[in-house]
Structure formats: C-alpha cells, structure tokens
C-alpha cells in the first residue's frame, strides 16, 4: 500500500490538512493542536444570537463533535441576529436549522441537535460526555443551572451574554478560576432580569460575542494561549470600547464549586431546586404568574376587541364577525365547538358592564409604542406612572391624563361620525351624535394594554390604590366646563371610570384577534 503523506498528528486526514491548513499555520495550534481540536466534544446550550456564531465557527474550525441544545423554533424576529437560520426555516426547530447550516459548511462534521428545554432533571445528563460547555442562552435560570451542572462535572464553561449594545464573556471553572456563582451567589429578582426579547439587542453584538466564545473554545481545545478564566471581557458597542477586568478569586464557600458543593454533590439538582435553588425554574422575563389580578379586573383579547375595537376599528367589522363566529383563533379560555364559540368567562362577567365610552391606554415604553400601536390608543408608559406614584402625584396626574384623553377621544370620534357615513361608530350607552364631547358621557371603561400582559397588570396594581371601589376598579373623574357667550350653560359632572387589563397584551392580540398586528 502506497503511503501518500505522514503527519506528526497521525489522526489527521488529507481533508483535515487541506481544510484546516490556515488554522494549523498559526502559532500554538499546528498539527498537535488541530488534532486536539478534532477530538474535543462541545455542548452549546442555545442556538440564538450567540449560539449561531458559536456553532458555525466551531464546525468550521474542526471541533470533534458539537451538540446543540435548544427547545425553540425559528421566528422572523430571529433573523437580524441569529444568522445560522434562514427565512426558509421559519417554524423549524432551531436545532434542526442549525444542524443543516453546520453540515452545509462541513458535511462530515459530527453535529447533534437536541430539541428540549434545559432543566434540573436533564442538565447533568446532557453535559456529562462533553469536554467543554458553552452557555449561549439569554436566560437567568439557564445561566445558573448550566454553571452548577458544569461545575459538578468539572467542565470548563464558556459563558457569553449580549443585550442592547453590550456584551460580556468569561470562562468559568477552568484551572481553579471562579465560577459564575462565585461572582453572583444569588440571582436577582426575576422582574429585574432583562433579556434581548425584553430590552432588545443590536444584531452584530451577539454575533461578535459568539465569535469570541468560539475562539475561547478552540483555545481550550488546542491548549493554546491564555483564556478568559478569572477575567471578563466587557464590550460596549455604542461607544466602541472593550476592556478585560480581573474577577475576584474562586470562593471557598461557593455552592457550585466550593466546599459546599462537595457536600451536596450527590444530591440531585432536581432535589436542590426544590430545597434551596428555585432559580433553576425562574423565567428569564417576568410572567403573569408573578403579577396577577382578580378576574373582574381582566379581559381577554376577544372581549377587548369587541368592546373597544368596534368603536374605533369599523374597517375591521368583517374580522370582528369572524371572531364572533369562531373562525379566528380566540383566547385559550374560549371553548370552540365546530364554528360556534362559547363566550369566555370574562365575556359573561362583563356583559352587564355597558360603559358609554371606552379608552385604550398603552403602557409600553414610548419607543415600543412608536414601533407599532393600535389606532387611537394613548401612550402612558408604566415608568411614568411609577415615577408619578413615587412623587405622590399619581392621583392628580392620572386623573388629569384621563380627562384629556376622554375629551380628545370623544371629540375625535364625533368628528369622524360627522365627516363620513361609512363609519358607523356608536358608543355603548349613547350614539355619538346624541352628545357633544363629554356632555352626556356617564361612564368610561379604560383598557390597559402592553406587550405581554405584565406591565398592564403592574399599572393596574398602582392605579387600583386610587379606586373608590376595590370591587370594580371604579375611579370618579370630575369634568367642569365654563359656559359660553352663546348661552351654553356651565357643566360640572362626574364620569365613572372602570379600569381593566388586557390579558396577554398585544402579543395575544396578534395571535387571537388580528395577525396583521406585528408580533415581536
């Protein structure tokens, strides 16, 4: 048998030498380093903005085996940063899309995709047979869980994060370096934790951090250079600055890698979660389970659409008919039988509450409102309400805001009624042409809406402190108008205002009422 070539790294093939030659030419890698890379097994948790670049560059760099773990499917909102996925993969599991993209780079690569949500029950099993763990999630619960499982198994952890314009990167648990829990023993309150889905992210930022994570993995595998163990890289993309800071040393009493861990090492993570580490089950963003209201203060998106939408969106009457006949997907609380939809509980609860006018107040941050909002909805960010409450001016400022909104809204609707015969806009209690602005208005139902139904509940908790009745969220608003030279009498009256929160917010509105409203 003819021998065509020999290498000091016997396992390297002709394809390896040709494919990875530019990498092998670098100092500290060479044939021996490349052989170590080809033998290294890596688990990457998350195939989003960070994991996209990690997976692509590790496969391109010749990593021996890559296991990608993610439970999610590809969405349109992923496209600006998760460059491993394409528009053709919308709705496809991310691990399937990632595996396809990686094999397009190297058809011989060993890439395994596991579609599941990381949990205390499966974390150790998933990480046990790998050499390096990569945390590419944007989830606080996953961050602690991945760290604790990796430290138990004595695996180096390459951890990155990216939100807004900022990114961070470190290597935990390598060569006696501190782990993530050494630095942050306890997680912050769930409602204070931000992810890119909450506060946004500029696409290239996770891309850059993901590339650097892949670089750290290759250095660990090749045993080359100095990795970021005991140090953290901090990147500010808005100011284009980057620095590396020293971290405090490994903590002897750390629950994940210190003496306490040795004592509890045999205790299953599921048991530890129940006993003392509830953060394993904590969501990366605040959810409705953390903020709730009695049912009488909430309405589903269908009820909101029927009560407020047909007052302002007459061009959607056909869609409204579809909702009423059950042709559109409605709230999860609705029960569909064929083409007949049984009204949800909040419909029955609110049947007797026929306010003569309705308002929609959007409590998202102003920049989100500017992205997309419902026609004739008013912007009142939750942060403004919270600041007003902190200053002791909530009652005064909110009631004045309502007065302005009701005046503007009823006047606008009256002008629409007068200008066109096509728009049949009527209030619940009285036809618009029966009164001038607020003159005949007796009550108003105010719907608070946000992105997911969390901020609107927070707003309700603040404003219910102002309510005259804790049973129905009633606020009384005084309206006073001076008389005019034409003989019009002065008006002094009270309007009853009832407060409601829209369950699930605008994302639920997109899913259950109007898919043309942007989902983000």
Q: How would you explain this protein's 3D organization?
A:
The protein is elongated, with a radius of gyration of 29 Å. It contains 20 helices and 16 strands. The protein folds into two domains: 14-281, NAD(P)-binding Rossmann-like Domain (Rossmann fold, 3-Layer(aba) Sandwich), CATH 3.40.50.720; 295-512, 3-Layer(aba) Sandwich (Oxidized Rhodanese, domain 1). It has 520 residues and is of the alpha/beta class. The longest helix is centred in the last third of the chain and has 26 residues, at 394-419. The strands form three sheets. An eight-stranded mixed beta sheet has the order 3-2-1-4-5-6-7-8, sandwiched between helices. The chain has helices at residues 14-19, 21-24, 30-39, 49-60, 94-105, 123-127, 140-152, 180-183, 196-199, 204-222, 259-264, 269-275, 301-312, 317-325, 345-350, 366-371, 382-390, 394-419, 455-463, 505-512, and strands spanning 41-45, 65-69, 111-114, 132-135, 157-163, 166-172, 231-236, 241-246, 298-299, 335-337, 340-342, 358-362, 378-379, 443-449, 474-481, 491-502. β12 (358-362), α16 (366-371) and β13 (378-379) form a beta-alpha-beta unit. α4 runs parallel beside α5, α17 (382-390) packs antiparallel against α18 and α17 (382-390) runs parallel beside α19.
* Biggest sheet features: 8 strands, mixed
Radius of gyration in whole Å, from Cα?
Answer: 29 Å
Q: State the helical fraction.
A: 25-40%
Q: Can you tell me the CATH superfamily of the largest domain? A: NAD(P)-binding Rossmann-like Domain
Structural class: alpha/beta
Q: What is the CATH domain class of the largest domain?
A: Alpha Beta
Low-confidence stretches: 283-290, 315-345, 347-352, 420-436
Please tally the β strands and state the result: 16
CATH topology type of the largest domain: Rossmann fold
Distance between the termini: 62 Å
Strand content: 15-25%
- Estimate the mean pLDDT confidence: 83
* CATH architecture identity of the largest domain: 3-Layer(aba) Sandwich
Shape: elongated
Q: Could you say how many structural domains there are in total?
A: 2
Number of helices: 20
**Major beta sheet, strand line-up:** 3-2-1-4-5-6-7-8
């Amino acid at each position: 048998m003819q021998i065509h070539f020999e290498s000091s790294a016997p396992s390297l093939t002709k394809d390896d030498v040709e494919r990875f030659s530019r990498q092998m030419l670098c100092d500290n890698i060479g044939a021996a380093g490349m052989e170590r890379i080809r033998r290294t097994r890596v688990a990457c948790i998350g195939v989003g903005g960070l994991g996209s670049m990690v997976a692509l560059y590790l496969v391109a760099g010749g990593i021996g085996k890559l296991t990608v773990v993610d439970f999610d499917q590809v969405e349109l909102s992923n496209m600006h940063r998760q460059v491993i996925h394409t528009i053709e993969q919308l709705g496809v599991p991310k691990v399937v899309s990632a595996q396809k993209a990686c094999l397009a780079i190297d058809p011989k690569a060993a890439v395994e995709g596991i579609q599941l949500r990381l949990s205390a029950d499966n974390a150790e099993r998933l990480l046990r047979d790998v050499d390096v763990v990569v945390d590419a999630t944007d989830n606080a619960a996953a961050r602690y869980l991945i760290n604790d499982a990796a430290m138990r198994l004595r695996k180096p952890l390459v951890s990155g994060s990216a939100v807004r314009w900022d990114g961070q990167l470190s290597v935990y648990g390598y060569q006696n370096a501190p782990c993530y829990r050494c630095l942050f023993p306890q997680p912050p309150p769930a409602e204070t934790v931000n992810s890119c889905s909450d506060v946004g992210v500029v696409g290239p930022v996770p891309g850059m951090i993901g590339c650097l994570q892949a670089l750290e993995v290759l250095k660990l595998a090749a045993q080359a250079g100095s990795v970021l163990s005991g140090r953290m890289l901090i990147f500010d993309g808005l100011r284009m600055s980057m620095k590396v800071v020293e971290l405090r040393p490994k903590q002897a009493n750390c629950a994940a890698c210190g003496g306490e861990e040795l004592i509890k090492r045999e205790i299953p993570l599921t048991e530890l979660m129940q006993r003392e580490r509830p953060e394993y089950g904590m969501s990366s963003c605040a959810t409705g389970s953390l903020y709730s209201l009695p049912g009488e203060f909430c309405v589903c998106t269908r009820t909101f659409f029927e009560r407020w939408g047909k007052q302002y969106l007459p061009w959607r009457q056909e869609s409204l008919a579809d909702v009423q006949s059950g042709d559109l997907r409605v709230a999860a609380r609705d029960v569909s039988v064929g083409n007949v939809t049984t009204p949800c509980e909040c419909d029955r609860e609110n049947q007797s509450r026929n306010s003569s006018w309705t308002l929609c107040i959007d409590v998202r941050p102003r920049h989100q409102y500017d992205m997309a909002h419902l026609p004739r909805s008013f912007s009142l960010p939750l942060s403004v309400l919270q600041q007003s409450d902190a200053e002791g001016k909530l009652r005064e400022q909110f009631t004045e805001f309502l007065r302005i909104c009701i005046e503007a809204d009823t006047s606008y609707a009256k002008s629409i009624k007068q200008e066109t015969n096509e728009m049949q806009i009527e209030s619940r209690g009285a036809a618009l042409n029966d009164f001038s602005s607020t003159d005949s208005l007796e009550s108003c139902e105010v719907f608070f809406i946000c992105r997911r139904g969390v901020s609107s509940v927070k707003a309700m908790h603040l404003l219910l402190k102002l309510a005259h009745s804790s049973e129905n969220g009633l606020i009384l608003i005084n309206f006073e108008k001076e008389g005019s030279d034409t003989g019009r009498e002065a008006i002094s009256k009270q309007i009853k205002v009832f407060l409601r929160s829209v369950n699930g917010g605008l994302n639920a509105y997109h899913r259950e009422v109007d898919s043309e409203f942007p989902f983000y």
